[in-house]
Design a protein that fits this description.
Elements (H helix, E strand, L loop, with lengths): L2 H11 L14 E7 L2 E7 L3 E8 L6 E6 H9 L7 E5 L4 E5 L4 E5 L16 E6 H11 L14 E7 L2 E7 L3 E7 L7 E7 H10 L5 E6 L3 E6 L2 E6 L18 E6 H12 L8 E7 L2 E8 L4 E8 L1 E3 L3 E6 H10 L4 E6 L6 E5 L6 E7 L1 E2 L4
Antiparallel strand pairs: 1-2, 1-4, 2-3, 3-15, 5-6, 6-7, 8-13, 9-10, 9-12, 10-11, 11-24, 13-14, 14-15, 16-20, 16-22, 17-18, 17-21, 18-19, 21-25, 22-23, 23-24
Helix pairs in contact: 3-4, 5-6
């Protein structure tokens, strides 16, 4: 097999190997050879990655291979054919390249943790570009707080002709809806963000991804790669409760203008609240920040289109900037009701079959 091809595949699978695994065997790849088909598996018990590679096989068998030493060896080799030999009675592995031979101690493949079988009731096909966009849009809003387990992943809501992806950390929320599917079932589950990061990193190029699930796991399959994520066993909060429906005040502004201004102003904000105050009136947005501890303050005024009552509202600049980063559009729309309620951030235009809505909670003035 080609050293470069194998290394490229192993770099995808290696994402499922933690730096400090709970069991020594979780530092290994499981190699299984069946005819000319090599199946490589890696797992951290939460996320498993399985991929297949065409090889020239001589005898069927399996061995657990230490990942780090194998990857380091392959990285040090230029593109060339390499040969693996494994001795079943003692799990020794010998790698032969054009430069020489490398012998390493493998582990007993029968001790490798079992990887969940796929026996899904339902599945759907979604394009990799849509899936990557959904992950990129939402993952930034997922929480790191393990005490709020349900918020540490992205909520998938499959509903006949659409799939909704939602993430929130109680300060900000992102809801991305793709309405280009057609299935005869509804289902919802929460996928951990670590698994979604690995999926996103592996999804290079244009693929049709088969998404299926059981009660405990979700499976993503494409191009001889299968990524399996254990679902978060928790109930996702009722996110619709925090989305304000009546927002008579609307601001239209250039995305880059507000983003750059906010970056500058936030330098002068209080470091614990990151509070920046928005003062909205008919034709301008005035942003200001101050840090009383150090007597720092800054103000900037931006032209904009604003329809509604004059309003003063405070935001955490860090959260606001994280959401602005997602919006890949020239103009954005802010919809507001009053200074105590969430503000909606929306792209001025959505792509076909896509709808992106973001929400940021205000910081109470005087905090």
């Amino acid at each position: 097999m080609s050293s470069t091809d194998l290394l490229r595949k192993l770099q995808i699978a290696g994402g499922a190997i933690d730096s400090n695994p709970v069991q020594p065997l979780l530092e290994d790849f499981l190699f299984k050879l069946d005819g000319n088909n090599l199946v490589v598996s890696a797992t951290n018990l939460e996320t498993s990655i399985i991929l297949e590679q065409d090889v020239t096989g001589e005898a069927n068998g399996a061995v657990a291979v230490p990942a780090k030493i194998l990857m380091d060896t392959l990285k040090g080799l230029p593109e060339q054919p390499i040969t693996f030999n494994s001795e079943e009675d003692n799990n020794w592995i010998e790698i032969t390249s054009a430069f020489g031979k490398y012998k390493l101690a493998g582990d007993d493949p029968t001790d490798f943790p079992p990887i969940p079988d796929m026996d899904p009731e339902n599945s759907l096909v979604i394009n990799s570009h849509i899936l990557v966009r959904a992950i990129n849009n939402t993952i930034i809003a997922a929480s790191d707080d393990e005490l709020r387990l349900s918020m540490t992943g992205v909520y998938f809501q499959i509903d006949y002709n659409k799939i909704v992806f939602v993430a929130t950390d109680a300060h900000k929320l992102v809801k991305y809806t793709y309405s280009g599917i057609n299935v005869d079932f509804t289902k919802s589950f929460i996928v951990p963000k670590k698994g979604l990061s690995l999926l996103k990193n592996g999804l290079q190029g244009d693929h049709e991804v088969n998404l299926s699930f059981t009660d405990d796991n979700v499976f993503f399959e494409y191009d001889n790669v299968r990524i399996i994520c254990r679902l978060i066993d928790a109930k996702f909060p009722n996110y619709n409760m925090v989305i304000p429906v009546d927002n008579p005040n609307e601001l239209l502004i250039g995305k880059k203008d507000i983003q750059n201004s906010l970056k500058r102003i936030s330098i002068y904000s209080n470091k614990s609240t990151n509070q920046v105050v928005f003062n909205l009136n008919e034709s301008s947005l005035t942003m200001s920040a101050q840090d009383l501890d150090f007597s720092n303050e800054a103000t900037e005024q931006l032209p904009c289109k604003y329809v509604g009552e004059p309003m003063t509202i405070g935001f955490n600049a860090k959260f606001f900037l994280e959401l602005l980063q997602i919006l890949q559009v020239p103009e954005i729309r802010l919809e507001l009701s009053d200074p105590t309620k969430a503000c909606l951030l929306l792209p001025d235009e959505n792509k076909e079959n896509e709808d992106l809505m973001m929400l940021v909670m205000p910081v109470m003035m005087g905090n």
